[in-house]
TrEMBL record:
Residues 104-239 form the Fatty acid hydroxylase domain. This is Sterol desaturase/sphingolipid hydroxylase, fatty acid hydroxylase superfamily. The keyword Transmembrane applies. InterPro entries: Fatty_acid_hydroxylase, Sterol_Desaturase_Related. The chain crosses the membrane at residues 14-39, 60-85, 97-118, 158-181. The keyword Transmembrane helix applies. GO terms for molecular function: iron ion binding; oxidoreductase activity. One of its GO terms (cellular component) is membrane. It is found in: Membrane.
Amino acid sequence: MDTLRAVTDLLIDYAVLFAAILVIAYLLPAGAFQLVMRLAPPASRIQSRPIRPGQVRREVLLSLRAVAIFALYGLGLLMAYRAGWTALDPDWAAWPWWWPAVGFLAAILMHDTWFYWVHRAMHLKRVFGWMHAQHHRSVTPTPWSILAFDVAETIPQFGIFVVLVMLVPMHPAVLGAYLLFDSMVNAAGHCGHEIIPDHQRTHWLLRYTNAVTHHDLHHSRFDCNYAQYFNIWDRVCGTFRDRDAPPARPDRAA
Ligand SMILES: [Zn+2]
Ligand SMILES: [Zn+2]
């Protein structure tokens, strides 16, 4: 009877994690930027290449598979949390009032560096085909492609959350808010319309953050703009291509 109870509890935990990740990391951000795609003026479209028939269906199916895998990894993190092995703390009174903002900012900076290097590594010839190729089948990305990963890519994509949960003292609600923010930025980068004013390119500070075109160029060219939030690592490593770069290499035409 105890075993049955334990299995039932585990299944309930898994179902809750699956639903939470599905809504926060996929349905909300992809749905919001699907709406942006509908409302954005045609002139803001970045690529002239159309979305391929069946592309969105493939992106959704791959993303659902990734959510199912993330929920499995999440079960491990939940067990670690309950055992007291993580840096998460549900007691707001344990933190100074300014700490949630610091933890959130630390998550952004750590994730940006993690993603740049992990992403560059996934583009190495030896691993690209089985680790990152599925995500790049969307040459003209849509918001539904944000979690369209090979099974192997789910490991580094989830890995940063293991690092954050283990190392950055945060309230679980701050972690949830960060996941939503990260997913929104990710969906924006795949919406195919430049919604950030051109002024961003020359602003003294905003020029170091990515606009939509930067990740769109990554999808059409494969060889530039590896970072998520900022383009500092791309500038330092010579992989930055700004908004006026040609959108696609001819041999990558869909
Ligand atoms: Zn890539
Ligand atoms: Zn992408």
